[in-house]
Amino acid sequence: MSRNVLRKTMKKTVMTLLAICVIATTMTSCATVFGGKVSDCQRTKPAKGQPTRQIRAVALIADVLLFWPGIIVDFATGAIYKPCNSK
Q1: Integer angstrom CA distances of residue 65 from 8, 36, 68, 71
Q2: Separation of first and last alpha carbons in the chain
Q3: Could you give the CA distance from residue 71 to residue 77 in angstroms, rounded to a whole number?
Q4: Where are the domains of the chain?
Q5: Mind giving me the DSSP string for 66-80?
Q6: How far apart are alpha carbons 82 and 52 in whole angstroms?
Q7: pLDDT lower than 50: segments of the chain
Q8: Given Cys at both, which of 1, 19, 61, 73 links 29, Cβ 3.0 to 4.6 Å?
Q9: Nearest to 77 by CA among 29, 20, 27, 8
């Protein structure tokens, strides 16, 4: 009887850890995870009269298809924008 209880407890623990891993994986945003380091010019909003920042289309599409709330994270961190040209 004790062995049966141990198996059920282990099964619940493994399933819980698996669920946490799945949730953590799906809640990531593509540009933040795969886009590399975010530069200062990606983080700052352009002033009036300056050119707008270009968006990484592949990351945006991946966020929409895989987990759409990841778009919020990408825009909040600035990772969704293409890196600025350094001159």
Answers
A1: 36, 21, 7, 11
A2: 72
A3: 10
A4: 2-77
A5: H-TTHHHHHHHHTTT
A6: 11
A7: 87
A8: 73
A9: 29
| pTM of the model as a whole | 0.62
Which tokens is 74 given?
């990408």
Instruction: Centre a 10 Å sphere on the Cβ of residue 24 and count the other Cβ atoms it contains.
Output: 9
Q: Which residues does 29 contact at the CB level (< 8 Å), separation at least 6?
A: 59, 63, 67, 70, 71, 72, 73, 74, 77, 79
Which pLDDT score is estimated for 77?
A: 85
pLDDT reported for residue 10 = 92
φ, ψ for residue 62, nearest 5 deg? -65, -40
